[in-house]
């Protein structure tokens, strides 16, 4: 026969569980990644799958940050060097898309079929792990610049803003971006 709890024991158990939940770390909101030595926080809501690189088709007449297109899950996906796109200084030797370890596919809800090159997956991160730097230079596609407890610099990416930026929307080289005259 099931034991009945008294109201007093129920309240005590509920208070204990609430106290335990207050001590637990907050849920992670970002995936920590790195490319060419630059660390970034990618919002989990804006990320989708992580892929191993497959055959990449180079695209002529595009900006250097466009590494090419690849067939992922039956659709063409633009593969992006996000460090170059954002104009951030690489901290490690520049690598090509063929040297990557992973491609981080953007969430389909963003409305673009694109993937970011990533050479390290640095785990899940939460807001309480980071301190936002004040006075950091504004970079389109970067929401904040942060530091972790070890003093390492992180860029909090806003992939929606990045995919809506003029540079992302027209990746052609300037000579090919001019309207044709008839």
From the structure above, extract its key features:
182 residues; 5 helices; 11 strands; OB fold (Dihydrolipoamide Acetyltransferase, E2P); 6-stranded mixed sheet; 5-stranded mixed sheet; 32% strand; alpha+beta; elongated
Description of the molecule:
- There is one protein chain.
- By secondary structure, this protein is α+β, with helices and mostly antiparallel strands.
- The chain has a domain at 30-129: CheA-289, Domain 4 (OB fold (Dihydrolipoamide Acetyltransferase, E2P), Beta Barrel), CATH 2.40.50.180.
- Helices cover 20% and strands 32% of the residues.
- It is built from five helices and eleven strands; from the N terminus they run H-E-E-E-E-E-H-E-E-E-E-E-E-H-H-H.
- It has helices at 7-23, 82-86, 159-164, 166-169, 174-177; strands at residues 30-35, 38-43, 47-51, 66-72, 75-80, 102-106, 114-118, 120-125, 131-132, 142-147, 153-157.
- The strands form two sheets. Strands 8-1-2-11-10-9 form a six-stranded mixed sheet. A five-stranded mixed sheet has the order 3-6-7-5-4, with no helix packed on it.
- A hairpin with a 2-residue loop joins strand 4 and strand 5 (75-80).
